[in-house]
């Protein structure tokens, strides 16, 4: 899940229909292959989220070989094929077809019914799949808004290819995309439409990781002011960019404006400090990364008006507690004007894909 979002390579599939059943079982027991669905194996990968994504991609490849009646890969499965971010890797393959699905489908296949024009379909690695724009709309209407915002952020990033240093050139493109996506959602009270419109309105192409998107979902869904994503902070040691943040300024007698309070939020991913996962090459490099992070935070705080809140994966398990932390860091005048977005907070017992 990197900053450049392109379709990932599909893992190879071994079709077992022509193989002896004992030979297939031996291949699995030997540890060299995993069964991704009935009749299909893929070479085993190392553990972790990369292995989960690889298995999901292999399952999509296996299912696509048997798709008929114009069915296309869609929803979170399409997001994965396009290389978009996902908060959770899908354990089933989602497809959309015009005909009504029967009740005897495979347990690892979720069929949706809906119209699909040629403009909504593209081809990735030889597989018919919903376009990125159509995928955003499907996910925004059916997924938890937290998960949908992760997809939407990455989709805008993939379509716009933004530069956080020079944002102005993509502003019009982003506005046009939001308008087009909202039109695709439609109007009225149809299933998931209000939620989808809220997700699209909140999407931001400058997010640089799925977890940054989740932290921002916590903030905007609970009614905090819309934060700036990748907020620029200049210090005597250089220019840094916070995952997200807010600034409040006041005007000086000479007409210039000065920052009187800045609240920065940084997501601390444990992965970047673990050499065994390949993001740093050694424990010494991991230690150097920690020192650099501390140095960066010291520089940022030197101005006396900047607060830094660090968020971990554990914090994301309790969104309300995290929201309370964020709110406590804001000025009292802002805390009195919070306006939660109910469409971004899913009520209990709501059925989502």
Walk me through the structure:
This is Transcriptional regulator, AbiEi antitoxin, Type IV TA system. It comes from Georgenia wutianyii. It is a single chain. This protein has helices at 21-29, 49-64, 75-82, 132-142, 145-160, 168-185, 193-202, 210-221, 283-301, 313-316, 319-328, 332-335, and strands at residues 14-15, 33-37, 40-43, 72-73, 93-97, 109-113, 121-124, 127-130, 228-235, 238-251, 257-267, 306-311. It has two domains: 14-209, no CATH class; 215-344, no CATH class. The protein is of the alpha+beta class and 353 residues long. Residues 271-280 have low confidence and may be disordered. 33% of the residues are buried. It contains twelve helices and twelve strands. The chain starts with 13 loop residues before the first strand and ends in an 18-residue tail after the last helix.
Judging from the principal axes of the Cα atoms, what is the shape?
globular
| Secondary structure: helix percent | 25-40%
Task: Count the domains.
Answer: 2
> What average pLDDT do the residues reach?
87
Strand residues, percent: 15-25%
Task: Give the N-to-C terminal Cα separation.
Answer: 22 Å
Number of helices: 12
Radius of gyration: 23 Å
Topology as a string of helices (H) and strands (E): EHEEHEHEEEEHHHHHEEEHEHHH
Unreliable stretches covering 5 or more consecutive residues: 271-280
Decide which structural class fits the backbone: alpha+beta
Biggest β-sheet: strands ordered side by side in the sheet: 9-10-11-12
Number of strands: 12
Largest sheet: 4 strands, mixed
Protein name: Transcriptional regulator, AbiEi antitoxin, Type IV TA system
């Amino acid at each position: 899940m990197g900053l450049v979002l392109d379709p990932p390579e599909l893992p190879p599939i071994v079709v077992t229909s022509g193989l002896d059943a004992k030979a297939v079982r031996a291949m699995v027991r030997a540890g060299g292959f995993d069964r991704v669905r009935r009749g299909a194996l893929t070479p085993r990968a190392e553990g972790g989220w990369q292995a989960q994504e690889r298995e999901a991609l292999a399952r999509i490849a296996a299912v696509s070989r048997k798709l008929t009646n114009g069915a296309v890969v869609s929803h979170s499965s399409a997001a994965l094929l396009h290389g978009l971010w996902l908060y959770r890797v899908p354990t089933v393959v989602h497809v959309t077809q015009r005909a009504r699905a029967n009740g005897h489908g495979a347990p690892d296949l979720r069929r949706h019914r809906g119209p699909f024009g040629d403009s909504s379909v593209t081809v990735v690695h030889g597989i018919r799949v919903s376009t990125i724009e159509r995928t955003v709309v499907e996910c925004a209407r059916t997924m938890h808004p937290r998960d949908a915002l992760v997809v939407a952020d990455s989709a805008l990033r993939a379509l716009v290819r933004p530069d956080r240093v020079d944002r102005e050139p993509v502003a019009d493109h982003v506005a046009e995309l939001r308008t087009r996506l909202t039109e695709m959602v439609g109007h009225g009270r149809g299933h998931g439409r209000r939620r989808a419109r809220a997700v699209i309105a909140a999407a931001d192409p400058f997010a640089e990781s799925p977890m940054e998107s989740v932290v921002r979902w916590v903030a905007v869904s609970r009614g905090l002011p819309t934060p700036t994503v990748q907020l620029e902070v200049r210090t005597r040691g250089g220019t840094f960019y916070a995952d997200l943040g807010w600034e409040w300024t006041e005007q000086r007698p000479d007409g210039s404006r000065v920052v009187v309070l800045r609240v920065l939020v940084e997501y601390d991913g444990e992965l970047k400090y673990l050499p065994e996962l390949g993001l740093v090459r050694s424990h010494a490099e991991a230690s150097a990364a920690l020192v650099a992070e501390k140095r960066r935070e010291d520089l940022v705080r030197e101005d006396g008006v900047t607060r830094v809140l660090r968020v971990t994966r554990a914090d994301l398990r309790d969104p309300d507690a995290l929201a309370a932390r964020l709110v406590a860091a804001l000025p009292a005048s802002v805390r009195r004007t919070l306006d939660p977005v109910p469409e971004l907070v899913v009520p209990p017992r709501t059925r989502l894909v």
